[in-house]
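Sample 1 of the test manifest.
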Amino acid sequence: MNLIRRFFERLADLDDRYPPAAFYGLLFAYVAALLAEAMRYDPRARLFPLLVGVPLAVALAVAVFAALVDAPDLGVAGPFEGLVSAVETHRRVDGGDTPRRYRREAETVLWLLAFVSAIRLLGFFPAIPCYVTAAVYRWERDVRRALLLGLLTTAALYVLFAELLSATVYRGALAGVS
Amino acid sequence: MFEQLFLEVPARATGELPEAVWIAARTVFTPRNLAFLTFGTLFGLLMGVLPGLGGPVALALLIPVTFRLEANVSIMILSAALGGVAFGGSVTAILFNTPGDAPNAATLLDGYPLTRRGRGAEALTASAVASAAGAIVGLALLVFSIPLVRRFALAFHSVDIFWLALFGLATVAVVCRGGILANLIAGAVGLLIAFHGLNPVTGTARFTWGTVYLRDGVPLVPLIIGVFAVAEMLRLASEATPIVRTDPVGGGKLAGAKAVFGNGPTLVRSSIIGWLIGVIPGAGGTVANFVSYLQARATSADPESFGSGDIRGVIASEAANDAKDGGSMVPTLGLGIPGSASTAVLLGALVINGIVPGPALFRENLQVVFVVVFALFLSNLLTSAVGALSAERISKLARIPTSSLVPVVLAVALLGAFVSRGNFGDVVAAAAFGLFGFLLLKFGVSRVPIVIAFVLGPIAEQNFHRTLQISRGELSAFFDRPISLLLLLATALVLAFPFVAAVRRGRGDPGE
């Protein structure tokens, strides 16, 4: 637990510039991959991807630069400042306890991944009550409320989707469904 | 069981005005579809009241539920939900000083002080009646504008639709929240996402990375559910939001209703302002709400009473908020350029139901416009009646903790993502876009340009190639028509304006 706490404290200590720079950098990498792939297509097929992708790659490079160099303090005058200052709103102002926020964000994402994995294995109607019950109990520590919410949610979704809409609902890999 | 219910209303589409009205009336005014409309309205009301949800999430969750219905009925339910969301947001603004949705922000300026003075019921009733009245004015103006928009739409050729799509993309990138560069990036990313899969013009499978899943392209339903519903839930779950505290609501329902009719000029002026602002693509409900509130204060004999519990402040903001829905349907349906995040999702829903938004809609699916009109009209009446009579009970929903809300909404969202095509890949896609949307929220990048670009991008590309085919490769065809040149000029102006403004701001403050 100490390790986890220290990890999030280190994350919170990171300069505010790096997370948005990393985000735009990852987008840049994907766009570069798309552009490389597009060059393999015939001219008509690659026209629009190139028309969009090349300016986008330039814009992302500018965004990474703006995020890393803390653009408003550059003292750059003229059109360039206007362009660069246009990305300054990407930075989120953290209010409050940042390590706790980062931890909560990571936990939220992990819960989502766990839910998707449970759906994949068990199917929707076993996974939904498990997930809803566990997630509600994690934050509210009330077993009865968590169980009730899990069961009610499952029942309502079953009636709506499986019965009223006659939708086919995924039954999970363990049931032999791919 | 639902399929048997659908067969009563045959799917019809038309571009003729009288026939469109008749089809829309036959669609909406059947007992079963009125029940669907009521469901959509109450769902929208619920989403408006619940913290952190609102229009985009409501529509994103409803799309998979309405997916199997006939297109006109689907659009009816979604429009009804839109009507419900607007009032739902005003309940929390008035009672808890917290707007349920951004367009209700001005309502709390006088709504909450009224609650603190024990006149909460009066404020809620005034809001309910003003909302209904504003919606009726907005819809009447929309109906009167239809012949004009239709004539305008009939004049569009493929090349004009191409430039219109680019204009739409540029406008949304500039007016959405966040820096212009960030929004342009978001729009361009949306275009590249749209280019994945089999291209109908060239027959080439692009960016499939060898997977069968991407051969048909990135599906729209998981994209919308992920970027709006899942991302919003991730944001809510990662924030430790306090439980909402409540003040006693008090009495005065009749006084609230009388106050609306006693301030007729304020009501009508605010409704017209709301409608006009709604017509401007991207302006959104927040602008309509505040501009109308400010004009009511400026034209009042005692402006200093505003901000401390003047019922006219509530009337003005809520009338404008609902009138803007009628106005926003002009660019959304007529030009394919949505005015807000909610109408961006509605645009996506049109595409999912096989209806092409923009000028083609007025030529081939005019009944959709009247379905929206009837649905918004009825849903606003219903919402106002329910709201005026039972707002205090509805307001208790706002006290549901997010720790209970988030898992339930995520379950609905991921199940909805699956049932649209019966493909587990869509569940993974919704989760992935949810993470992506969460990062966009974290870094202040608007999500609306992504969805709009995803819808408008293929329209732009197809009409581009169609124009080249018609002109046999002559590029001059893109600059021949007056409409095309006008749209090209408008696009350039829209893109240039923020940079020019930034340069002039920089020159004006040399020391900063």
